[in-house]
Amino acid sequence: MKRHLLSVTALLCVSLTQPVFSQQTAVDFFESGVSKSKSGDYTGALQAFSMAITMNPDNAVSYYNRGVAKASLKDHRGAVLDYDRAIELNGKDALAYLSRGISKSKQDDHRGALLDYSRSIELNPDDPQTYYNRGLSRSRIDQYSGALADFNKAIELDPANVQTYYVRGITKQKLNDYAGSLPDFAKVIELTPKRSQAYAGRGISKTELNDYTGAVADLNKAIELNPEDGESHFYRGFAKGKLDDYKGALADYNRAIALKADNYAAYYGRGFCRSKLGDQKGAIQDFNEAIEINNSNTEAKVVYSGRINRATLDNLRNVVQERNKINELGSERAEAYFSRAVSKSKQGDPKAALLDLNKAIELNPTYAEAYFTRGLIRSAQGDQRAAIMDCNSAVKLNPRYAEVYYVRGIIKHSLGDENGGCLDLSKAGELGYNPSYKVISDYCN
């Protein structure tokens, strides 16, 4: 089941109402942001809306559209913060609640999304998209009866939406209404005859209804359209087994296991077929696998518990551009210690570099670049928590130091604090450090 994200064009429709700004330059930046969003330049749009907000911090539409730009860059945590502000300034904007709900659902905060979708429906009860999205979030937290009611309403308002018929069919399966799901899958097949999932869904329902011949026919089509669909191979194997075609079933179970090695049910089915075909040794091996596989992730990560591992962290951190620029040498000579540290680090002597950075910070406790550089070296040496402390000091001294937010974000993420890390990456992007959005796209969704 795919979670839905509105197109930028649809989300930007609120911007058709000309906002009232106190300064003409704010209007210029706002209009530039809208133009850039429509052309797909979301990073440019974000910066333009940020300038409009700086000049007029109380305009809800600017926050909303900046949130849309962030969402388009998959920065949903950052988008929620902008939608929060837009709603604070204009609590009657149904589209802002809908958009915030979408971004919350993208972060698996489906209960929070439900509240937003419900408020959006109160303000605009005739939008099928909101019912559809609320149905998806309800299904994600196993509220299938409520999800079904939402999908029914969405279809009532928009009978031509193929995707809603599909998810309604899946929801009926969750409610064990396999017979009721058949017309929904048939409707999807009628409107989109090349959609493999619809044949697969109908085939699974037919299997549950003991129509094994009909199930094999539908699953044949699903596999023809998508040969890598392991679930369809599994169910076709099951249906063939019910039809006493154990050789055919064996081939399907083999393929299902090849596509998903921890499919313990497929091992059980294959073992059953092997037993029926006289291969008791092979059957026992498969039954052993079916019993032993517990579908758990056995990879142990003690320190680097996030999806950003140590090697990835090193690669992402190394993209940060050096900011060592010549500064006027103060009487305490902290700048000289700092520059010597950078040179020592480049020569591969991090211990000596750290000693110089310590001295630079001792001489000038407000030296943000020295804290950040020390944090980079500490991170490279594996001392991530000390690196975070240095980054904390750097951003406290310079709250607009975008690269520090970026580095702190990837370190937090690597240590398992995905939410804190992604919020830092969002802030880095908002401040103009665009490499953040690639990391957000890969690791924050």
Automatic annotation (TrEMBL):
GO terms for biological process: receptor-mediated virion attachment to host cell. SMART domains: TPR (SM00028). The keyword Electron transport does not apply. It comes from the Bacteria. The keyword Phosphoprotein does not apply. Keywords: Repeat, Signal, TPR repeat. InterPro entries: TPR-like_helical_dom_sf, TPR_rpt, Ycf3. It holds the Pfam family TPR_9. TPR repeats lie at residues 26-59, 60-93, 94-127, 128-161, 162-195, 196-229, 230-263, 264-297, 334-367, 368-401. GO terms for cellular component: cell outer membrane. Residues 1-22 form the signal peptide. This is Tetratricopeptide repeat protein. It comes from Spirosoma sordidisoli.
